[in-house]
Design goal:
The complex is a heterodimer.
Chain A lengths: L1 H7 L11 H26 L3 H20 L6 H19 L6 H21 L9 H5 L7 H30 L1 H6 L4 H23 L1 H18 L3 H26 L3 H16 L6
Chain B lengths: L15 E11 L2 E12 L3 E5 L6 H8 L6 E7 L10 E4 L13 H9 L10 H12 L16 H12 L6 E4 L8 H18 L2 E5 L6 H4 L2 E6 L1 E6 L1 H5 L2 H6 L1 H8 L1
Parallel strand pairs in B: 3-7, 3-8, 5-6, 6-7
Antiparallel strand pairs in B: 1-2, 1-4, 8-9
The chains are: A mainly alpha, B alpha/beta.
């Protein structure tokens, strides 16, 4: 971290000489952006934008369960709960003719209801969960940045080892199956990666930014990309530019970081829109 | 599931696929029963029948994806038993026009372990180009899937099914969404491929207009095989009239 702090001090910003929380936040953004930029490509390709939203909301349920079990950090209970939910979702989706958005709706509402039920059981209040909706990137600590960097590494390894099969399963499941790809395994791998990422980063990034970072980079990239390589390049670039610009804007204007990042993402989507290929 | 790739009888030493007494039941419902089928290499066999007749289920069984009773045997010329490689051309999906996946991406993802989000090496690109040359589609390599016409997409999926070169080529409704010119081009291509590579071609279709011209054998199905023979013979049969009677009545009206 000392190396990072001294590197940041070379930047021409007033906060670069002192405010450690900004330096931490910048490093976190540089880790989170490529992570979400990568995942975003397949979230949009697999039409799963609604799924990340459902996962985020159901993570409350995991946190409520963790709190009930008196865990010191309920986030891990939320991670396990999200993984179970991702597995159940993949299993049910493979055994029904319902569209995936319908199956997501079923899981999302049931999990959220269970979360609210557990949190308010015996007259408890739900307001303590509001922080997860907005998130606070400025409070991110070096240990958490390390965890997020590990997550990025894990997703890069998953992409190197399994991306082709995940892509084939999404583009044409029957074709993938005929070539020996176990489609449900690939779906489970991918949904689990999204589930873990959403849950572990929710406290700092906030649900609003998570959903925008999982959908908007790839949505913008699709407007201009001609192949999978360009799709990834543009998606990661859009996520990075939005993350850094959003953080700097929020400091300069004194507004919520999450909202600023999301607004820059929306702006980049709007700019790429006229260039879309028809 | 019992897929037994052992020596069959009655192939007279020629390479052939033999389906015997095949049955499929899903959740208590009989989809296929008593299906017997015999296909020689180099033949084009057309499967016809109404929707829900079990054509796609039979394909899945041959692909090893569908649990079934009965047996599916394959033997190479000389009676040598073998596990056949099956090339599968699925029904064409309607890709979104904005789909950022190119023909090269689809091939590279399917035929090599190279992660396609990284720059594709020259050697892999050349290999994909050679695959596309089999269907005269080298120029399609950088096209996005969403920008291909129905006929072009069928040729691309066909080229993919030919890598690695299969013993049996299965095409599920290859002419749906393809215009007349595209259909004729695809038929000429299939004819060329079965002669060059000595493939068995098994396809399902609802389009009977060219059946007599290209199909060596037509199989009429509805849960089981109702009639097998040359196209004209099957289409003139009482079984054909019975299965498609509503349609014939309408056409006759």
């Amino acid at each position: 971290m000392a190396l990072w702090y001294s590197l940041v001090e070379l930047l021409p910003f007033s906060w670069a000489h002192g405010l450690d929380f900004m330096k931490n936040a910048l490093l976190a953004v540089l880790v989170i952006s490529p992570l979400f930029g990568l995942l975003s490509t397949m979230v949009v390709e697999s039409r799963m934008s609604f799924f990340s939203d459902a996962l985020g909301h159901s993570a409350f349920t995991g946190i409520a369960i963790g709190a009930l079990c008196r865990l010191s950090d309920p986030m891990w209970a939320a991670a396990v709960f999200a993984l179970v939910l991702a597995g159940l979702f993949t299993w049910v989706k493979g055994r029904t003719h319902l569209q995936s958005d319908t199956v997501i709706g079923v899981f999302s509402s049931a999990a959220v209801a269970l979360g609210i039920f557990l949190a308010t059981l015996g007259g408890g209040s739900f307001t303590k969960f509001n922080a997860y909706l907005i998130g606070d990137i400025l409070s991110v600590e070096p240990a958490m940045i390390g965890l997020l960097a590990l997550l990025l590494l894990a997703v890069v390894v998953l992409w190197l080892c399994a991306f082709d099969r995940i892509l084939l399963s999404s583009v044409h499941p029957a074709l993938a199956a005929s070539r020996g790809v176990r489609v449900s395994v690939q779906e489970w791998l991918f949904t689990s990666a999204v589930a873990l990422t959403v849950t572990l980063s929710m406290t700092w990034v906030g649900l609003l930014v998570i959903n925008s970072l999982l959908v908007l980079p790839a949505a913008g990239a699709r407007n201009v990309a001609r192949n999978v390589r360009q799709y990834h390049l543009f998606s990661v670039l859009i996520a990075l530019v939005s993350g850094v610009a959003g953080l700097l804007l929020s400091y300069a204007l004194g507004a919520s970081t999450g909202a600023c990042v999301t607004l820059v993402l929306a702006l980049l989507f709007a700019l790429s829109f006229p260039a879309r290929r028809t | 599931m019992s897929v037994n790739w052992h020596e069959g009888d009655g192939c007279q030493g020629a390479c052939c696929l033999r389906v015997s007494d095949l049955g499929v039941t899903v959740e208590g419902r009989t989809i296929l029963q008593g299906v017997d089928l015999h296909i020689h290499c180099g033949q084009i066999v057309a499967l016809i029948g109404p929707n829900g007749a079990g054509k796609s289920t039979l394909f899945k069984a041959i692909l090893g994806q569908q649990p079934h009773t009965g047996s599916i045997q394959f033997e190479r010329s000389g009676g040598k038993r073998a596990r056949p490689r099956v090339g599968y051309v699925p029904q064409s999906p309607a890709f979104q026009r904005g789909e950022p996946v190119s023909v090269l991406d689809l091939f590279a993802a399917a035929i090599s372990p190279w992660p396609v989000f990284l720059p594709v090496p020259r050697s892999l690109r050349d290999r994909v180009s050679q695959c596309l040359a089999r269907v005269h589609g080298e120029t399609l390599i950088d096209q996005r899937l969403g920008s291909l016409s129905g006929g072009e997409l069928q040729r691309v999926l066909l080229a993919l099914a030919l890598e690695p070169l299969p013993h049996i080529l299965i095409l599920d409704e290859p002419f749906s969404g393809v215009d007349v010119e595209g259909e004729l081009r695809l038929l000429r291509l299939l004819d060329e491929l079965r002669r060059v590579f000595d493939l068995s071609v098994l396809l399902s279709t609802h389009d009977f207009s060219n059946l007599c011209d290209y199909a060596d054998k037509v199989v009429l199905m509805k849960e089981t095989v109702l009639k097998v023979g040359p196209a004209r013979e099957v289409m003139d049969s009482p079984e054909f009239a019975q299965v498609f009677h509503l349609r014939l009545d309408r056409e006759g009206a």
